[in-house]
Design goal:
Blueprint (H helix, E strand, L loop, with lengths): L13 H15 L5 H8 L3 H14 L3
C-alpha cells in the first residue's frame, strides 16, 4: 500500500473548484449526490447545487 503522508495538501482557487465540481457532475451524473461532491471537494453544498442547476439550465436539448 502506498504512503501519501509526504504529499502537501492542495489549495484550489475558486475557478479550480468550479471546474472540479462540473467535471464530477458531468462524469458521474445522477449517481453522485450534491452532498457527496461537497464532502469530496470541501465545497459548500449550496454552491455545488448552484453549479449543478447552471449545468441543467445551459445544456443542449
Amino acid at each position: 500500500m502506498a504512503a501519501y503522508g509526504h504529499l502537501q495538501p492542495v489549495i484550489w482557487n475558486e475557478q479550480e473548484r468550479r471546474c472540479a465540481v462540473i467535471q464530477i457532475i458531468c462524469i458521474k451524473g445522477k449517481i453522485i449526490s450534491i452532498t457527496q461532491v461537497s464532502e469530496l471537494l470541501g465545497i459548500d453544498r449550496r454552491r455545488v447545487a448552484e453549479l449543478r442547476q447552471q449545468l441543467k439550465d445551459t445544456r443542449d436539448p
